[in-house]
Input
Amino acid sequence: MREKTIEIALIGNPNSGKSSLFNHLTRLNQKIGNFPGVTVDKKTGNSNLTSDIVAEIIDLPGTYSLYPKSLDEQVVLDFIINAKKTQSLDLIIVAIDASNIKRNLLLYTQLADLDIPLLIVLNMMDLATLAGINIDVALLSAKLKTPVICFNGRTGEGIEKLKTAILERLSFTSLPTKFIDSHSLAGSVIADLKSKLSLDNDYQALILAHQFRKKLSCLNIDEKDIIQKITNEHNFQSATLQIQETYQRYDQINTLLNTCIENKSITNIQQYSIKIDRLLTHPVWGYAIFFGLLFLIFQSVFSWASIPMNLIDEGIATLNAYLKQILPNSMLTDLFTDGLIAGLGGILIFIPQIAILFFFIALLEESGYMSRVMFIMDRFLRKFGMNGRSVVPLISGVACAVPAIMATRSIDNWKNRLITIFVTPLMSCSARIPVFTIIIALAVPEDKVFGIFNLQGLTLMGLYTLGFLAAVLTGWILNIILENNQRSFLIMELPSYKMPRWNNIGFTIIEKIKTFVFDAGKVIISIAIILWVLASYGPSDQINNAINETQNYAKINHLNKEEEANLLATKKLEASYAGHLGKIIEPAIKPLGFDWKIGIALITSFAAREVFVSTMSTIYSVGSENQYTIKERMKAEINPETGKPMYSLALSLSLLVFYVFAMQCMSTIAVVYRETKTWKWPLLQFAYMSCLAYLASFAVYSLLK
Amino acid sequence: MLEKNLSQLEIGEKGIISNFKDEEMSLKLIEMGCLPGVDVEVLFKAPWGGPICIAVSGYNLSLRRDEAATIVLQN
Output
């Protein structure tokens, strides 16, 4: 029988070194789920405290206090209040940035007043020492009646001591020193609430009185009514009382720190960091550096990822050719190679790009530069209905819209958040890259511009710019249409610059690849198999017809065996179910320059756009013995009407523009639905982006053909 | 005498927080360590009327100019 597992929550301010601590405690035993009812990522992981005691660690989103200002922070309050009621938590570990201990302690004091077993982890002691802050850890621990452990997130030093301390903390039952007397703030309300709702903690009652209007899973409607009545009866002044409470907490913190901290004023580091900041937020250099960095990132994604991608592409082609040789020639073999393995190749090919993009995004966040980008982009983005906090979703959108849309939860203002959600899928995500890559490689020569810039890379950059401009313009229009009835703040810490912790970056990359391979992978594989079936079978009379026609044509025109086989493959595909679907929509997409083969790819891409490449490889490899790479096949395709290569510049650009604008991702639609809690927004977004894609594609093709 | 607010300080200028003009905003500011009696210094500003960065309670905090305007400084 398994023993009851130990449950530990990890809490702390943003930038308090919480994620480093989580990674060190749980290593790779992490999984991501959802908090009930919301889509906020719930990161949990198992930590081996000893060889036979395992604790489950829950990593809560960063927050400054238990009075939430954004959805992320709301989740923390809900979790803590619920855990207080159900007594489901064994321990809360509070991560504290030692170099910023005063503000970090505020959240600790709130938790201490809730009578929950706590343990403090002091991070960034090295930075504190550099800043001249000297903390008497033993005295602090004694005064708080809470163990305080120093931990170095960079080296992992202190982790064993922490594990021992957790075990010791679990075995004694004394509670931390309380900070404020909630009763003196609102005695009558607290007394009434405690008796009516049978609570035993003053501060818990006070928090409920402040927050009952928000979404709290531990309160039912009747209880909310009771609280409403009591607070009205006693004329409970929520805002004023929260301010008074916070003043009292800081008074207590100051008294405490006066005895436990020695402050030597060292200003050199600060001056150095301010010089960097003044450069990075300069009216000219600030933006030049930011856009230069983005440019560098795109160039490296394009050049670095192309090598592993070609390897994967060729590897899959070789593997398929080999399997076809050794396996018996049957339908099942074809399903396995052309359906399953080709589909699998379509997933694997993404990994290099996702890894490189998230490497850069994690690097920007880890180093502290991302908050400077928010700082200089706030003014600009507000004109377009967003704000500085939209920077992270917009940039993450370049990797994948799904986590990007989930990252909008840190935006406190609903209108800003909605607009960010609406426009983020217009940022070119990594799923578009394989489509872009293959078509650019077909249509754009590999020339260099000014001897250094790769023309194909510049085209890719142009497509990203196009998506970004569409996002911004859409935001501008929505900003005019939508009403705003909520305030927005940009009161946030600008963290000090730090050397990135490489293992944190590694964990982020692994996490994102895992999510992609398992979530998107399911969709891609299923579509690849369905597609193979649709492309291999058709109405039998029509398939027979195609075979007869080809044989006759071959006899009359003296085609050799290979020419006959290729013709047969094309004729059979045309007669298949997939061919029929493509033919049905061909009249609608003809004005964009697309034929029925691209039509098939468009249909399958509406579930997930990355399916385009695997669809193309399925379509072009069905029934053929020769294993060319997909690019060579598309290059060899001839337009039957003009006799010229099918993938002309006009068609290629039209197709590229279509993929820039079209909403072809079921996962995005699903996540927008979950985040906005209505079908109105995902459907509007889908309709809007589809129209935009069609019209833009039509314009491009008409101008260039 | 005219009261001075945080948004009027130039880069490098210092002040001491006196009180707040906006209750809702003040709770967030107080939580972030902007307390009456605490020193503030404007470190740098984002271009074209964007947010400003101040040193307060031992760290750097960014806030918009209209948010800074709600913080009244001691004369």
In short: The first strand of chain B starts at residue 4 and ends at 5. The mean pLDDT of chain B is 91. Chain B has one domain: 4-73.
